[in-house]
Amino acid sequence: MFLTLFDFAGTFVFALSGATAGVRRRLDLFGVLVLSFAAAAAGGILRDVLIGALPPVAIRDWAYPVIAGVAALIVFFRYPLIERLKHPVQLFDAAGLALFAVLGTQKALMFGMNPLAAAMLGVLSGIGGGMVRDIMLAGIPTVLRAEVYAVAALAGAAIVVAGELLAVPPHISMIAGGLLCFVLRVLAIRHNWQIAIAAPPSETDDGPRA
Amino acid sequence: MFLTLFDFAGTFVFALSGATAGVRRRLDLFGVLVLSFAAAAAGGILRDVLIGALPPVAIRDWAYPVIAGVAALIVFFRYPLIERLKHPVQLFDAAGLALFAVLGTQKALMFGMNPLAAAMLGVLSGIGGGMVRDIMLAGIPTVLRAEVYAVAALAGAAIVVAGELLAVPPHISMIAGGLLCFVLRVLAIRHNWQIAIAAPPSETDDGPRA
Amino acid sequence: MFLTLFDFAGTFVFALSGATAGVRRRLDLFGVLVLSFAAAAAGGILRDVLIGALPPVAIRDWAYPVIAGVAALIVFFRYPLIERLKHPVQLFDAAGLALFAVLGTQKALMFGMNPLAAAMLGVLSGIGGGMVRDIMLAGIPTVLRAEVYAVAALAGAAIVVAGELLAVPPHISMIAGGLLCFVLRVLAIRHNWQIAIAAPPSETDDGPRA
């Protein structure tokens, strides 16, 4: 019950992020609705497809598209409001990331995935929506670029996996993992943490394979 | 039988659209074949993956790749011909959209999706091919931008869903929904209808989440 | 056993290609890891999703992400080394393509796909990773553009399908198909073979459908 509320809150803030990106790129109302749902649900949908949990919960349960639709309408018709809310939205986004990463990992474990796969699928649950949003807008996913975003999700997922291996009750490890992810992400925003980028290569063109 | 013929016609015109986009971007013959099949089949494939109808019918039935392949070869070797046919192709495309949207919705209902999910999957069946085509060409899907395209698909899908809820025989609501979608799309082309775009935001950069 | 070794080698070189592309676009370490795994595993994952073999083997078996991760770390921390190895990497890549195409076709046949679908899925197994890698980097997949890459995969897949239809023992046709694909690809690199591009169209803009 509590988890479901958080899940809906995460869906809502991820949908806000998708709708905001769509309005900035001057999509029409339909495009904003699509991007909103994609940002909110694509991570979980990809996870569910990969573990074979079909149809994905975000398709099966009408609450997800409705929540995403409400977020899209708010952003579309009240864009200045959202601009002003940037700071709280970042906090919600961090909370959504934490929750999706932890819930996704746990679901993958329940479907019999090995620990490494479960952690990867947890991260995918958390960051997949943002990746699909950016690819739809013909950009390189921001999550792949110099930001402690996925790493926070990975830390949370790792805690859940470790808890499973050590037979810790799931709700304990999920709370611990979620908190770790959330705190890491908030600290990263506050202190502008970056993770390593490789030394500049000799050439910068993008040739074919290897 | 009649439906199958329309399905093949829709596949053919969507394949033409993919192949045309590929030739314009100077892809090689193989690339044109891939884009042709993607534009024709990706909507249905995504729908089938999401409802768990695996393998997707467009993979299982050899008619779809064969039809898409023929369309690709025609466009590749007779490009000027296709250019001249622009007007009829737009009509066929509207017919394909109508049919895919309506058939996709009905199939999703038969697989037990709720009404909202069925309508979304119907729209995805209709517009998914064009979206994948555009993403493969590194562009923002045109369907997300200021055109009454997806909305026509949604109107058709909504009729099918409403028919299901009111226990109207499926073939009646499918014909009604398909006609509505087709007429809306043709009127939108003729009168250059656009749907709303949000007021220009204060900044135009695409920052990270939210 | 022998096949598994080749499969791992193919995974490794495809992962190298993804990681190299990521470093060139200045992704952070996490982004390089993601791109590395996507390039190595996306082809097989897409194939497994489409034939309904869920969860995909690249998710289920921890060896694939581990191999891709090792490749990513090598590229990230030893980029100049990889630059120097370009020639051997191209050979490995050709070997990986051959193996993935042939194995993918055979797996699709075993899952009851028709010959055309099996060949398409074999090609997808071989080229899907590179396509997803390029789409994630917001580019048009190089494999769709003027290079005898997918065609080599198709030739290999066709041999496997023909062998199935003629009741040749699978390992014979797989070896023959794999060799054909490998030799074609290496010759194409050496002699800079290109396949046909359609005559330049009258206009070069990318309009909407058709």
TrEMBL record, chains A, B, C:
It is found in: Cell membrane. It holds the Pfam family Gly_transporter. Residues 5-78, 91-162 form the Glycine transporter domain. InterPro entries: Gly_transporter. Its main location: membrane. The chain crosses the membrane at residues 6-23, 30-50, 62-79, 116-136, 148-166, 172-188. One of its GO terms (cellular component) is plasma membrane. Keywords: Cell membrane, Membrane, Transmembrane, Transmembrane helix. It is a multi-pass membrane protein. Belongs to the UPF0126 family. This is Trimeric intracellular cation channel family protein. It comes from Ferrovibrio terrae.
